[in-house]
UniProtKB/TrEMBL annotation:
Pathway assigned in UniProt: Carbohydrate metabolism; galactose metabolism
Gene designation: galE
Subunit structure: Homodimer.
Catalytic reaction(s) noted: UDP-alpha-D-glucose = UDP-alpha-D-galactose
Name under which the protein is recorded: UDP-glucose 4-epimerase
NCBIfam families found in the cross-reference section: galE
Family matches, as InterPro entries: Epimerase_deHydtase (IPR001509), NAD(P)-bd_dom_sf (IPR036291), UDP_G4E (IPR005886)
Cofactor(s) essential for the protein: NAD(+)
Amino acid sequence: MKKILVTGGLGFIGSHTVVELQEKGFEVVIIDDLSNTTLSVLDNIADITGTKPEFHQIDLRIKSDVNNFFKNNKVDGIIHFAAFKAVGESVQNPLDYYENNIGSLVYILQEMRDRNIDNFIFSSSCTVYGQADELPITENAPVKKAESTYGNTKQIGEEIIQETCKAHGINAIALRYFNPIGAHESIKIGELPIGVPQNLIPYVTQTAAGIRKELSVFGDDYNTTDGTAVRDYIHVVDLAKAHIAALQRLLEKINKEKFEYFNVGTGTGSSVLEVIKAFEKAAKKSLNYKIVGRREGDITAAYADTTIANKELNWQTEKSLEEALASAWKWQQQQNK
Ligand code: WQD
């Protein structure tokens, strides 16, 4: 049985990926520093799959702790989610973001180099494209100077990985996520925003649950069909499955380059107002919202051209926006019990 290390494995996307890995027969070991999640997610994963993954609470900024882990744990591959990810916060605290997101990546890659660990999947983001010149966005779209420190850590991360693969023969795939949303059908795992949600969907569900008074729609003067910004919202389980597909590509050694990257989205763009309408239909309740000014740093539109990911990863999204929103709402109701 192949053993896979999942860093950030108790986080939103990490936990859903751990479930899919276990269900595909992989043995999973999780490293998480619990800075943006809770230990109860480990039991929730076990409730879904029947197997509690091995867990180590480690701060990946501490090189000696990373080294100790690898001294005592042999793994066949690594899926690296662990990172700070709040766009606004990253601009206020750039050094914390570079130390955590880049530092931990370097320490893990050093261990891979020294111990001949070969397969690496990196959690990247469509923010590397900024506002793309053409839509839908293909992998050939130019990477642009990131608008945020968070986005820059993803760009720099990809460059570090590419150079490491070239110099040390590691095989790696970066998955450039669009907007992950929703929750596992069991409603035992989902998004756990701490504090006031920065992302749209948790803010929508918390407004519908009465936790927030009303949703502020950040701008309706964009050059889009209804003036609100457009994004590609992908069900988190579809996204998790893309990680399994990418890992299998590396394990089967059918990757074509040492370093590859794929756009992981649905291929469909939805505006904020379209999301609100779809949510009201899915949740069978109306949502309080108001139009306010644009949010600093937001782009007009981003949605993926998934042709290459579909073909090379032999992977397709299976769930609709409505299904994702319905699962997000069920998850929110579960949190309020
Ligand atoms: C989506 C749309 C907002 C909140 C970011 C990161 C990306 C990834 C996902 C980490 C935008 C609008 C939002 C609200 C709103 N993060 N909005 N009212 O900014 O596309 O992407 O989160 O991996 O890397 O860049 O996602 O959910 O914040 O915003 O109107 O209260 O919803 O303006 O158009 P975003 P988001």
